[in-house]
């Protein structure tokens, strides 16, 4: 059973994890807990020299350990040991996750820790099951496609679910035979630092997993532009992804995987089980207070059932219990920072001033910390930022339709195509929606990923390039070499 904890009693160690130790650096970024706005730590910013040190450590460790060329099962076994340690240290990891992020302790242990271990196990088992191919050629030749690791992977993860995001990047990179240097968000570094330490304890050679702390401008840019980084993997905003593409294009061309923003639609047809749909839609927008890239922020509901559905959705969204992330009874998160909650306020206030109606919510909660009320906005102007921009907060807009094609047209977004939800009991209608909706992932009669890590995730349009999770993530951490032998 998950227990509440006192955030003031959690031991926090900040520094860059390079090789097998924490490297101290001058603190520069003041950190505040989102649940109570209390200053509790300061994070350093790794300079270009510190980033270089981490990358050279990774490069040296990769060569000396033989990690990329060893029997693949050895990597599998080491990664399984790492996953075992993550589960064994789950309580501490969960507390480190919850003290700094918007993840309630009830979810960070039961979901984030467990899922991270599962992801690492999934990729561990890929190590000796994915290889090259013999290619059909004429009888005088032998053609082969060989698969080999890139070398050192540079990864950057966001603040919303830091532990799981670290697993997304570290698991496939290591299983595929690479080393990794990862920069977590400067707002939520603690759980990532700790699983890097657990990797060494698990028997993964020291230096293969390195964590540098800092901001995007200094540390992130130094990481992705470094000549010894062979591939970049990033999860975050579309704007930041665009900046990364520019940096790579202007410094050194290299492959990249970008999982970026979304403004995901949820279509509710009149045939849907409205009670089930309301619970799913509520969870989709209130999980982590809407601070997930796949948050279902655009409700598109059949006009015939719209009033009934909005009533059900309002009840479902009002049932969540806000509270500090360290309180085991809390299931509704704060927004990560003052800056972020101010952005949510600005967008909602602008929409209301333009004629939108706040069906529920629309304001900050009157309590300590950065909590914003669960919010439904109806009658939103077509070009309103509330409908067009990724808000990253607990705000959903509601639009109605009369005909199926109208629903599909409303679901299309000019910029994003990350995920979508469809609710209907009509199988043919569901399949028409799956084929028509422009999104990298479409969920039917549910919203959100399962724990089937074989399913890849990634977006269309400006929602990203490439895939995380699934076989695709493993393969994207290996490069292909074509061989043709004259017989």
**Shape descriptor:** globular
CATH topology label of the largest domain? Aldehyde Dehydrogenase, Chain A, domain 1
Mean pLDDT: 97
Into which percent range does the helicity of residues fall?
25-40%
SS field, number of helical segments: 15
Termini separation comes to: 65 Å
**Over all CA atoms, what is the radius of gyration?**
23 Å
Helix/strand structural class: alpha/beta
When the domains are counted, the total is 2
Concise synopsis of the structure shown:
The chain has 487 residues and is α/β, with parallel strands linked by helices. The protein has helices spanning 48-65, 72-88, 90-100, 105-124, 162-175, 190-201, 216-225, 238-251, 274-286, 306-318, 338-353, 385-388, 404-411, 427-436, 470-475, and strands at 16-18, 21-23, 27-32, 39-44, 133-135, 141-149, 152-156, 179-183, 209-211, 231-235, 256-259, 265-268, 298-302, 357-360, 375-378, 395-401, 416-417, 419-423, 441-444, 460-461, 464-465, 478-486. It has two domains: 7-260 and 463-486, Aldehyde Dehydrogenase, Chain A, domain 1 (3-Layer(aba) Sandwich), CATH 3.40.605; 265-452, Aldehyde Dehydrogenase, Chain A, domain 2, CATH 3.40.309.
Describe this structure in words.
The protein is an alpha/beta fold. It folds into 2 domains: 278 residues, Aldehyde Dehydrogenase, Chain A, domain 1, CATH 3.40.605.10; 188 residues, Aldehyde Dehydrogenase, Chain A, domain 2, CATH 3.40.309. It contains 15 helices and 22 strands. A 7-stranded mixed β-sheet has the order 14-15-16-13-12-18-19, with helices on both faces. It has a 6-stranded mixed β-sheet with strand order 9-8-7-10-11-21, with helices on both faces. β12, α9 and β13 form a beta-alpha-beta unit.
């Amino acid at each position: 059973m998950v227990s509440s904890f006192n955030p003031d009693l959690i031991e926090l160690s900040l520094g860059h994890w390079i090789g097998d130790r924490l490297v101290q650096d001058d603190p520069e970024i003041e950190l505040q807990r989102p649940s109570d706005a209390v200053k509790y730590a300061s994070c350093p910013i790794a300079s270009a020299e510190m980033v270089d040190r981490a990358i050279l450590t990774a490069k040296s460790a990769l060569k000396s350990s033989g990690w990329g060329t060893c029997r693949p099962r050895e990597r599998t076994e080491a990664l399984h040991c790492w996953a075992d340690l993550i589960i064994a240290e789950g309580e501490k990891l969960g507390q480190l996750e919850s003290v700094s992020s918007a993840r309630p302790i009830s979810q960070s242990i039961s979901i984030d820790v467990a899922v991270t271990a599962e992801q690492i196990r999934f990729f561990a088992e890929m190590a000796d099951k994915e290889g090259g191919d013999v290619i059909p050629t004429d009888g005088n030749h032998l053609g082969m496609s060989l698969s080999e690791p890139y070398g050192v992977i540079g990864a950057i993860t966001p603040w919303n679910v830091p532990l799981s995001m670290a697993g997304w990047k570290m698991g496939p990179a290591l299983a595929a035979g690479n080393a990794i240097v990862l920069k977590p968000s400067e707002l939520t570094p603690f759980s990532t630092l700790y699983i890097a330490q657990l990797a060494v304890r698990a028997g993964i050679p020291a230096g293969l997993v390195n964590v540098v702390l800092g901001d995007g401008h200094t540390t992130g840019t130094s990481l992705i532009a470094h000549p010894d980084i062979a591939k970049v993997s990033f999860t975050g905003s579309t704007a930041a992804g665009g900046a990364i593409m520019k940096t790579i294009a202007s410094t050194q061309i290299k492959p990249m995987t970008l999982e970026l923003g979304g403004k995901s639609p949820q279509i509710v047809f009149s045939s849907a089980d409205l009670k089930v749909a309301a619970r799913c839609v509520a969870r989709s927008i209130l999980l982590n207070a809407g601070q997930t890239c796949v948050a279902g922020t655009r409700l598109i509901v059949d006009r015939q059932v719209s009033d009934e559905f909005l009533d059900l959705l309002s009840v479902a969204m009002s049932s969540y219990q806000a509270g500090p992330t360290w309180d085991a009874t809390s299931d509704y998160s704060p927004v990560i920072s003052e800056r972020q909650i101010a952005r949510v306020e600005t967008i909602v206030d602008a929409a209301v001033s333009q004629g939108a109606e706040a069906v529920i919510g629309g304001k900050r909660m009157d309590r300590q910390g950065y909590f914003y009320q669960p919010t439904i906005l109806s009658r939103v102007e077509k070009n309103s930022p509330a409908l067009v921009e990724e808000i990253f907060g607990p705000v959903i807009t509601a639009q109605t339709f009369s005909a199926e094609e109208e629903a599909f047209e409303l679901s299309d977004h000019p910029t994003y195509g990350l995920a979508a939800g469809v609710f209907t009991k009509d199988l043919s209608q569901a399949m028409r929606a799956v084929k028509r909706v422009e999104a990298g992932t479409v969920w039917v009669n549910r919203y959100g990923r399962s724990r089937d890590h074989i399913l890849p995730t990634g977006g269309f349009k400006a929602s990203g390039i490439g895939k995380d999770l699934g076989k695709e993530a493993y393969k994207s951490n290996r490069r292909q070499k074509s061989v043709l032998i004259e017989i």
